Amino acid sequence: MALILAIESSCDETAVAITRDGNLLSNIVSTQIEVHKKYGGVMPEIASRLHAENISICLREALEQANVKLEEIDAFAVTRGPGLIGALHVGLQAAKTLAMLYQKPLIPVHHLTGHIYANEYIEPLQFPLLAVVVSGGNSELVLMEDHLKFKVIGETRDDAVGECYDKVARVLGLPYPGGIPIDKLAKEGEHTYNLPTPLHGEKTYDLSYSGLKTNVINLVHNLEQKGEKVNVPNMCKSFQDVAIGMIVDRVRKAINEYDVKEIILGGGVSANSYLRSEMQKVGEDTGIKVQIPPMWCCTDNAAMIAKVAERLYQRKVFAPLDISVDPNWFIEDFEKF
Description:
Shape: globular
Low-confidence stretches: none
Order of helices and strands: EEEHHEHEHEEEHHHHEHEHH
Radius of gyration: 20 Å
Number of helices: 11
Structural class: alpha/beta
Strand order of the largest sheet: 3-2-1-4-5
Mean pLDDT: 96
Distance between the termini: 24 Å
């Protein structure tokens, strides 16, 4: 094993973590949520500038917390994609500079593999498994037969589930990010609004949220034009039942076709209380173990990047210093750069 420093800057969190022999020594995260709230979503240019401001601060704090020096680091890992191109560049340039300065390996890490491997901070993964990766920018069902063997069996065809939550929250006058307020209000409401379920009845593991988002927006606008007041808790409940129901439906179909020992969640939407409870029901109904990450591992952080980097370091998956970012990097191509 090795002493690894990892950097994450794919969206609106600047993060640096350090691990030694698999043990997490430090995990510093600087979030930009308060800044982006006023815009109702992440502003890419602002995010990039804030990463540039915060990266050196996070780096210093991570080193101090871990009580190590840069010259002791064996490898520098960084999120290469997917994510916002400008934000990714900040992290990559920092990691490349450190790797060049200290003449140590540079390890590019796929962001979604980090969300999957964050679960290893609880206990080792059990294969074969089904990983349900749900976040603001991604929604994927990934089959894994062994470590670092990823097969996407389902993905979003348009909006990701987290993105859909944010846009629905905006039209309902709820704060950004939308997942938390919608989840909270849904507990107070009833399913009274008839919303369509995209791709219903199709033989696919893919997801689609654009139509659901548009339907909610149109319904809200139509009610307002008629002078009728939207029952926000009921709309949140109706929306969340459909949005989360699609994921749970795909998971149930997948485990009927694929023999898996474990189902794991990853990504920001895995913090959703309704998704967590519904996935636990899947486990109870099928006898398959369901692994849910702790709350600190759901949002973007560098600890999850370091966890993947440990395995890539063992396999000597190192990148040349002329590597660039890839905002659309496929998880199955995590070794291609």
